[in-house]
């Protein structure tokens, strides 16, 4: 049997690309990494994702797969191994998908507005972001009480979907002015963050929170300078 050819097209600050890194590393899949530039997209990226022309793109044996959560689902199907990310139970699978998608719908936009907006928009972004984190804390206590992850004792699809936000917290606080409540208010969230950060496969690809915060500061200056 020939060896799989696996290649990831991405840019390092992308939380969407981090999901793919995490899934591949949790599965122990070897892959080639190609750093992209959003201001000068490679021919390979444009050909692999002609619809959106966006990262990340996973190319497996010459076939491109696009959109981060779709890619994570694909990885879990192709390399099931001993660490399944999506539960077999249909309801548990739906719950895991819901919380991964929750990050896109509730955390991502609010987080971007924390970095890029001012005035009332910025204030609302802070409120929305805090509400979303509160709901994650509540969900962790309900879905996996006493356990560190949405998946219980091991990371699952929801954990992989949400984990990339962790390295952005410092930027949200330092650059976006977000005040993160303490562990006494959100004990489940803090336990989850500590658990995620202790996983070797996560450490392997996670960028420095300081570097991510620096990137956020540059982005904020660029956006506000153009306003």
TrEMBL record:
Its EC number is 2.5.1.18. GO terms for cellular component: cytoplasm. Residues 4-83 form the GST N-terminal domain. GO terms for biological process: glutathione metabolic process. It is an enzyme of class 2 (transferase). PROSITE patterns: GST_CTER, GST_NTER. InterPro entries: Glutathione-S-Trfase_C-like, Glutathione-S-Trfase_C_sf, Glutathione_S-Trfase, Glutathione_S-Trfase_N, GST_C_Tau, Omega/Tau-like, Thioredoxin-like_sf. Keywords: Transferase. This is glutathione transferase.
